[in-house]
Input
Amino acid sequence: IMNYSKKLATISALAVAILSSCIEEKDLSQISKVPEPETYSEVTFNIGGECSTTETPLSRATNEKKDIYGITVSQWIRDTSGRLQSKPYAYGIFDNISNLKLNLLDGYKYRVACTMVRNATDSLEVDGKLARPFTLDRNGKVYGTVENKFLIADQPDGTQLFLFDADNSKIGTKAQEDISRPSILRYHGLIDSLETHTANNELELYRRYFAVKFVANGLRKNYKLEVQLDDSPKWVLTPEKNETDYTYISFRTLTGKITSGNIISENVMFRVELFKDGVSQGKIMEYNRSFKRNYKSVIAISDIDNFGTDADLSIKIADEGELENDPTTDLPWQGGN
Output
């Protein structure tokens, strides 16, 4: 009987040990890894490049023209296929850039872009709000407002508000709606890969436009020329006004990298249409011409009467050097709303 009792006790102990082991194994397999708490780092930005902060109208009266800055912050993430893509994280619209800071979620890299329009409130403001490129939807219909702070892109209803047109050359004035090469003083710069441990970050903004002036020599009294660069607004030349002022024309590509000694240029379709007594005689000139970023050019058209003959008309194009930085320049062509 004693041996039987010992055997029974031994079997019971083994059964309890085996059962405990199974329970422990099952419990351990069901315990989820406790996620680490999210941490954030404060990141600050300074504006530099060709857009000196000393020229920013921080102290102008409220009824004067102001320069507007739009800043976008996107997270670099990988999609289900492993491809890297940017996801809207935050945005801000500023007319005061003295305190550019926000908290970024650690563990990610970010793309930060900044676009600036000189005298933007003169032409892009509609009922106190701002048209493209400071709109907050993909269709350019939700006008933005100056908040002078960063706002989260994700909204409670699952939508996003973001400066989707920050890298787009188009602006939202009635005079130049949907024009890809508007007359505007546009600056742009970006940091393609920002990590949260960097405290002071320089957003180097560069001019994304060129200047052009047209001259027509020898126009007859009943002649008129209309000149256009791609889909830009048209210049009109007549015998009474045969010379235009310099006009600033936007680059279509705003994100090209600017490096010392490297001159960026864009090919532009240059068209000239002749009118006689108000009736179009068709295009007398149409060809591609390269324009340099931050340079000004003079285009002189002569011998108009030779159009259609073997002699043909004459055109001279002269680069007049780099643009001077003139923050007081008015932009009547930018067009009001």
About this structure: DSSP finds two helices and 19 strands in the chain. Residues 223 and 276 are 5 Å apart (CA to CA). The radius of gyration is 31 Å.
